Amino acid sequence: MSDNTSVRKCLFPVAGYGTRFLPATKAMPKEMLPIVNKPLIQYGVEEALSAGITQMGFITGRGKRAIADHFDTSYELESEISGTSKEKHLEPIRTVIDKCDFMFMRQREMLGLGHAVLTGEPMVGNEPFAVVLADDLCLNDGEIPNALQQLVEIHQKYNCSVVMIQEVPKSDTASYGIISGEEIEQGVYQIDDMVEKPQPEDAPSNLAIIGRYVLTPNIFDYIRQTKPGANGEVQITDALKVLAEDEMVLAVKLKSRRFDCGSIDGFVEATNYYYQHQHY
Question: Which DSSP symbol is given to 112?
């Protein structure tokens, strides 16, 4: 475990190809797909910022320069609309740029989420850190702590690695990492097993890991020791399973709503919901 309970850094694995959204993602990163008028990646960064995190690290790849450009000043655009009614639309992203530091590293090969997180080790160093998968859009309506805040609070209380979970239909377990464990306080489970994408009949529960993590830095050693799976990918779930055998790893049940924007159905559902409820 780490002795430092403050979480200052968040990693965003954004190197994937987004093939489910082709041809839209042929030349545009899937993380830049907009929910109404704001790209998915900005929702993720804003969530991390609301959780008190200001250092954003991106594990990126070829063809992803638009993400770095988005979190930078656009002199031509800003000069063109300066003093007009359109300028107000840039206020949210200007706030993010002013309050955060941004770091970028390239993942040369797509070898799984575990490998992506390990690629980010030089940006993290020896301190706890968050991981956000922008595909998982978690609603932040201000009434309760956002998804990452929930994890940070539990990490600070127990000083261990924490993952976010959500109940899913039993028939959907083959799409997720599934945990089992003992509920030690309401909505918080101490993990005793994790299975990557089990068939429904083999799943230990219907508690699925979603794209939010707060991890202690010793996870990097566990990832290094994790062998690739059948598809050649190194899964973070496999590393966390071994870590949970050696020390406490907790899972926190998501209190807010989540949209799976890695699928077209979830992306359309999120767009409609955010448009109707003006969460953009």
Answer: -
The total of structural domains in the chain comes to 1
pLDDT tens digits, 243-263? 999 999 999 999 989 999 999
Both tokens assigned to 17: 């190809």
Cα separation of 162 and 151, whole Å? 6
Whole-angstrom distance, CA of residue 141 vs CA of residue 115: 33
The CATH number of residue 215's host domain is 3.90.550.10
Does residue 3 form part of some domain? no
Domain that holds residue 43: 9-277
Q: Is residue 2 in a domain?
A: no
Residue 5 has pLDDT above 60, yes or no: no
Label residues 17-36 b or e (16+ Cβ within 10 Å = b): ebeebeeebeebbbbbbebe
pLDDT at 74: 84
**Inter-CA distances, 124 with 10, 80, 120, Å:** 8, 37, 7
Does 168 map to a domain?
yes
Q: Please report whether residue 215 resides in a domain.
A: yes
The tokens for 19 are 């093939």
Cis upstream peptide for 29 (omega within 30°) = no
Q: Can you say whether the dihedral through the CA atoms of 108, 113, 115, 120 is positive or negative? A: positive
User: What was the pLDDT predicted at 3?
Assistant: 43
Range from 86-100, 213-227, 251-265 carrying the lowest mean pLDDT: 86-100
